[in-house]
UniProtKB/TrEMBL annotation:
InterPro entries: ABM_dom (IPR007138), AI-2_Isomerase_LsrG (IPR050744), Dimeric_a/b-barrel (IPR011008). This is Quinol monooxygenase YgiN. GO terms for molecular function: monooxygenase activity. PROSITE patterns: ABM. It comes from the Bacteria. It comes from Saccharopolyspora dendranthemae.
Length: 107
């Protein structure tokens, strides 16, 4: 799978509305056949920062994502709400779901 984590620093005046601002992009991406997950979280340390954790089945699904109409639309509409260019980590992993954190196993 292609595993991606990105940090989005949102302008303070848009931070509370970010889930609604990004909703169209989020929903369209989640409906892509190759999307495994696409989940936003808000930082507990910085209320203006959102972290996106996403995964796609493979490189082909990742390429389809960045070539989609909703991705191109997001490129045009989302940056105006941001303080800076999002930072990203992108890796290919030989798995297709989350692994268990054995060091914190729940009995």
């Amino acid at each position: 799978m292609i595993f991606i984590t990105a940090k989005f620093r949102v302008k303070p005046e848009h931070a509370d509305q970010w889930p609604q601002i990004s909703a169209g992009f989020t929903n369209a991406t989640r409906n892509e056949p190759g999307c495994l997950w696409f989940d936003w979280s808000r930082s507990v340390e910085d209320p203006n920062e959102y972290v996106l954790v996403e995964a796609f089945r493979d490189g082909e699904a990742g390429a389809a994502h960045v070539q989609s109409e909703h991705f191109r639309h997001a490129q045009q509409t989302l940056p105006q709400h941001l303080v800076e260019t999002p930072r990203v980590i992108n890796a290919s992993l030989d798995q297709d779901d989350w692994s268990l954190l054995g060091e914190m196993a729940v009995e």
